[in-house]
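Milestone 3.1: sequence recovery, worked example.
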């Protein structure tokens, strides 16, 4: 399903839903795990929506596995990202307010594979990630994780 992201755009459509979601920053040998998303054609941290009956850390583990083929263990919290000015409009008419929790995670195993949500899976250095097309909100999450902040970002 295609989507358009709006940030602080006065012409953005009205919000119709809020869906808790997660992303994970997984680092290994100086590289970060990224996916090339199918819905907006941008690079991103792996993640997705929280399902009923899951703990939020179960969501991280499931989403990383589904989108990348890798198994991870959650190790920490980077921050919360709930900007009402960041809206995602989907082609089915849904307009979501951003509600994302960013975690750090440790690689346990697995092998890279794509999914319907990821057309590429790659380990990239932070310098290389800075040159990839990435939504500003995703770039901010990655930057916050790599800064190794003493406390989670609350926004």
């Amino acid at each position: 399903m295609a989507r358009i992201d709006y940030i602080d755009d006065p012409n953005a459509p009205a919000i119709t839903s809020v869906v808790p979601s997660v992303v994970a920053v997984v680092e290994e040998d100086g590289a970060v795990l990224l996916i090339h998303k199918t819905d907006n054609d941008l690079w991103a941290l792996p993640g997705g929506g929280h399902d009923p009956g899951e703990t939020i850390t179960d969501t991280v583990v499931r989403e990383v596995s589904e989108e990348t083929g890798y198994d991870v263990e959650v190790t920490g919290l980077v921050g919360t990202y709930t900007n009402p000015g960041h809206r995602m409009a989907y082609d089915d008419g849904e307009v979501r307010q951003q509600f994302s929790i960013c975690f750090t995670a440790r690689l346990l195993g697995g092998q890279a594979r794509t999914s319907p949500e990821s057309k590429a899976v790659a380990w990239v250095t932070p310098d290389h990630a800075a040159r990839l097309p990435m939504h500003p909100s995703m770039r901010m999450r990655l930057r916050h994780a790599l800064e190794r902040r003493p406390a989670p970002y609350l926004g």
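The CA atoms of residues 87 and 97 lie 5 Å apart. The mean pLDDT is 96.
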